[in-house]
Design goal:
8 strands, 50% helix, alpha/beta, 8-stranded parallel β-barrel, TIM Barrel, 16% strand, globular, pyridoxine 5'-phosphate synthase activity, Aldolase_TIM, transferase, Pyridoxine 5'-phosphate synthase
Length: 254
């Protein structure tokens, strides 16, 4: 059995609630502190171009908190000159390149690495040279995985939204097709020497299926855990997710 799957908490939606009133609470930085004290393995934050939730000051403070705990900050960002420049200046542990459209509610689908190979490749090269771990948030598409390897991305994070939506909607055929695609994608990436992460839409019901897949090294979960924390508290929500990941990853042959 490989070492346990890492759990990263995305704190974007704490900032969404804060910004709805335009005040200071709830504070995503405080959420990160509580999560790190509770044992999560890292913090994820997406600084969108429109600054709809996480703000520049949040990223700076989150980086300081993560450094204090000796844990990584995963900086999600669009592939733009502004964001690449900010990442190079801030030097987070990881920079995860994601697709971004102003009209979307949340990140829909994976990054088109095939169609943006020059732009993505240039960003990855800059990050690799700066000691920032590049990650590409992509769909479970063999062509995207091949190009991720071509541009020398050390990590891919697979978008699990379609899989999780199909499970909740009880669309069994779609769910099993998506699960098979995810399993094949994880294996392909692993064989190409790419570390595999997964995220988007994961909850207590869907995490067992993903945790059982060999070679998945990290799960980044946000919206569900922040929502669950309203009812049971953040520490309890994180502890339950950690238990489920460990339970279903136990015995997996890597």
């Amino acid at each position: 059995m490989h070492d346990r799957i890492r759990l990263g908490l995305n704190v974007d939606h704490v900032a969404t609630v804060r910004n709805a009133r335009g005040g200071h609470a709830p504070d995503p930085v405080r959420a990160a502190q509580l999560a790190l004290k509770s044992g999560v393995d890292g913090i994820t934050a997406h600084l969108r171009e429109d600054r709809r939730h996480i703000l520049d000051k949040d990223v700076k403070a989150l980086k300081e908190v993560c450094d204090t705990f000796g844990k990584p900050l995963n900086f999600e960002m669009a592939v733009t000159d502004e964001m690449v420049g900010l990442a190079l200046k801030m030097k987070p542990h990881a920079a995860c390149l994601v697709p971004e459209r102003r009209q979307e509610r949340t990140t829909e689908g994976g990054l088109d690495v095939v169609g943006q190979i020059d732009m993505v490749g240039a960003a990855v090269a800059k990050f690799n040279a700066a000691g920032i771990r590049s990650s590409l948030f992509i769909a479970t598409d063999p062509a995207q995985i091949e190009v991720a390897a071509k541009v020398r991305a050390p990590v891919v994070e697979f978008h699990t939204g379609a899989l999780c939506d199909a499970f909740r909607e009880q669309e069994d055929v779609i769910f099993h097709n998506e699960l098979n695609r995810l399993q094949a994608a994880v294996q392909q990436a692993h064989e190409l020497g790419i570390e595999v992460h997964a995220g988007h839409g994961i909850d207590y019901d869907t995490v067992p299926f993903i945790a059982r897949i060999p070679h998945v090294r990290e799960l980044n979960i946000g919206h569900f855990l922040i929502g669950e924390a309203i009812f049971v508290g953040l520490e309890s929500a994180l502890r339950r997710m950690r238990e489920l990941i460990d339970l279903h990853h136990k015995g997996v042959v890597e």
